[in-house]
Amino acid sequence: MYTQTIQEKTSLQAGAAAEEANKKKISKYSFISAQNYIFQALAFETLGPFSADTKKFLNKVGLALVQLTGNQKARAYLFQRISLAIQRGNAASVLGTLPSTLQLEELFVL
Question: Taxonomically, which superkingdom (predicted)?
Answer without folding.
Answer: Eukaryota
